[in-house]
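Researcher: Here's a chain I'd like modeled. Treat it as a single chain, no partners, no ligands.
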Amino acid sequence: MYLFDIKQIFFTLWGYPMSYLEFFGTVAGGLAVWLSARANVWSWPLGLVNVTLFFFLFFQVQLYPDMLLQVFFFI
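Model: Modeled as a single isolated chain. Structure tokens:
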């Protein structure tokens, strides 16, 4: 099983197949925002994890401008 493949379905929610990559990227992003609202320093590493996971997601679905935007967010 390759976790970074968007064809590996983690679960289906209301008919939408959610991949491992998309799920963990979304969870990391949500936690980063939650920690940032509480002025916690751990929001930065989780934000970088979020950006990295979505970089791979956008690459696989061939959304190259969005992929490059993730590079901008990482820097």
